Amino acid sequence: MKINFTKMQGAGNDYIYVDCFAQDVRLSAQQIAFLSDRRFGVGGDGVIFIRPSERADGFMDMYNLDGSFGMMCGNGVRCVGKYLFDHGYAKSETVRVDTRSGIKTLHMTVGPDGKALGAAVEMGKAELRCAGIPVAWDGENLDVPVRLQTPQGEQIVHATCVSMGNPHAVVFTERIDALDLESIGPLYECNPLFPDRVNTEFIEVLSPTELRMRVWERGSGETLACGTGACAAAVAAVLKGYCSYETPVTVHLRGGDLKITYAKDGSVLMQGPAVEVFSGQIEL
Question: Residue 150's pLDDT is what?
Answer without folding.
Answer: 85
